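Prompt: May I have another protein with tokenized structure?
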Amino acid sequence: MKALADPRVSVDQLADMIVTATVRLAGADNGAFIRRDGDAWIVGAIHGDPPFASGERHVAEAISIWGRAVLSGQRFHYADTKFAEPQLPDAEKRRTRMAVPIVRDGESIAVLAMSRNDPGGFEPSTIALIETFADQLAVAMENARLLKETKESLERQSAIAEILEAISASPTAVEPVLDTIAASAARICNATYAGVTLLENGALRMRQSVRRAPGAATMQRAMPLEGTVSGAAVLRTAVVQVDDILASEEFPVTRESERRIADGTRTVLAVPLLREGEAIGTIFLRRAELRRFTEKEIGLLKTFADQAVIAIENVRLFNETKESLERETAVAGVLRAISGSPPRRPGRDGRSLRPDAERSAADRDGRDPQRTRHARAPRCPSREDAGLERRSHAADDARRSAPAR
């Protein structure tokens, strides 16, 4: 019971303790705990000699007793497998078998299976004990689920906060933001590779990427839209996921690229970056296993995509504003230069001279330009001067007309 309350103990570790205890107390020879993981079922713990090994992945089928239990959500108990209907595999072995499903919200999430080599079945008290241990496993799995969801929620919030901080700290360059997005996407979605592509001149170019597994370098050349997973996401403006890219005929360019990289990639995903309904790039992820990305993971990647678009828009607007201010500053400088220039005056040859040029010419002639200007200007006679001049002319006329003596 202490292990149930210890968050450091994983479900499989707890299951190993419970399977071992159940086998001992129930008088069984073999035991196993099998839990659901997506569309597959993983063997989490075994004891004795069951027909599978710990860590194996299986598909639930009605041919096995544990498959019947998880598919129906009901307990199955055979006192002698030779008389089981439908017939079970290896009926001559493990003659007594029992499987108790662990159900949550009407769906089987795990199964606890016990077997004994001899026929005869389990006693009712033993069956009740096995069901009690199954209930404890159900509690442990629920605690683990809540703890995992809380941890994932904190990781998502932390990743979003990191991206927002990168956006705030980098208003002039988008690369730091895209690098943070790629790293967060690879870490939280448990991908072997994550990258951000942007649409440039009708093709996609990888801008930032993070690799978490060995492999050849990722191609940095432009990628066509046709024949690629990212290209399909751009053209469809929708998420595109391929369960096994090595078996895909729809995306030959991506398939051949993954074969060349040789990092074991199987499942790939592309989430478009949408701006006003049009795709401008993608977030592209790869996994080195056949495991689909969940709806929660895709939802988080869509949030990352929105943040990438915001960062790209911020940088574009910043650069446009900067260029506009630079143009306005240059125009203002030209206007100031024009308004601050003194007027030109005509020179001797008819061409205009600036005052400083006129002063230089006067200096070469040894003249004061101010006095020279006044000397050249004609003086307007006053009325008194005009009268004196008329009387002088009249006296001259009288002398000329007088007879000579």
